[in-house]
Amino acid sequence: MEILYDLIILGAGPAGLSAGLYGARGMMKTLIIEKNMLVGGQISTTSEIENYPGGMISESGTELTMRMKNQAVNFGCEFKTDTIIEVDLESKIKTLTGESGIEYKAKSVILATGASPRLAGAPGEKEYTGRGVSYCATCDGFFVRDLEVFVIGGGDTAVEEAIFLTKFAKKVNVVHRRDKLRAAKSIQEKAFKNEKINFIWDTVVEEMKGDPIKGLVSIVLKNKITGEVTEYNGGDKPIGVFVLVGNVPNTELFKDKLVVNSGGFLIADEKTLNAELSSTGENLEGVYVAGDCREKLLYQVITASADGAVAAVVSEKYVEENFN
Questions:
Q1: Catalytic residue among 77, 139, 293, 307
Q2: Domain boundary at 222, 243, 264, which?
Q3: Range(s) of the domain holding residue 201
Q4: Is residue 163 in a domain?
Q5: Burial class of residue 6 (count of CB atoms within 10 Å of its CB; 0-12, 13-18, 19+)
Q6: Crossing angle, helix 14-25 and helix 301-323, to 10 degrees?
Q7: Which of the chain's ends, N or C, has fewer CB atoms near its CB within 10 Å?
Q8: What is the pTM of this model?
Q9: Same domain, 166 and 263
Q10: What residues form the membrane-spanning segments (predicted)?
């Protein structure tokens, strides 16, 4: 028997889980579809979260998002594990087709597919993600107190985060593959004036090395001009590496259907979070965007959760006005 949902949410990160909670609590028949067995998205790789209001002390990303999931389940939200490979978002009844062959149908849809950090691509990076390698200084800066830190990147975000990390780290090394930064001049000036920041030019990461107990202990860098290879370590302490070369939004499935910016992030109406049709640029009623897959100023758990809540409330109003 075919099930028609009031709301289907694609993605079970903080945005999707928040949407699921608000949707189910609003008495909508709500389903969250997540391609991975575990919920949480990018935040599930963070070992401790201390800046989420009301969160538990020393709570991991996995623990926080599992609590979010349990809240949503308690209000009746359903969960399915599947990878969506095709979508029909323009019909009044939306259809999402999974790798399983199942067609999921809904009156409204929230796209909360998140983003993935762009990796440095060096050996050891994946093994020590969450154990010395991070992609968010705001999230993990507190954990590199008095350590030597390496920031990979040269754009606005990398340099701003390097400045932020000087609040905690003993020394911050900005590693950039070119001989000049891409960041705005005003940001560069602040960084150059900061005595705790050192710049390593024309350099790429060759390898990241770790210890089973200490975590990440050294980074191997190669100068592109001279070919010189240097290994930096923290002595008797671990080091921190922040890879800040951008994020890749998980929006490939929608690029030919919805409006995206030059980075691939979905453009949504700032008030309603409606997705916009690429063919006309108009709001696509019944389809909403939440979390890190959309273009926005701040990418944090709290802003993703807020997006999810807004999108669910707007979708509830849409369903009531168009299907009842």
A1: 139
A2: 243
A3: 133-243
A4: yes
A5: buried
A6: 40
A7: N
A8: 0.78
A9: no
A10: none
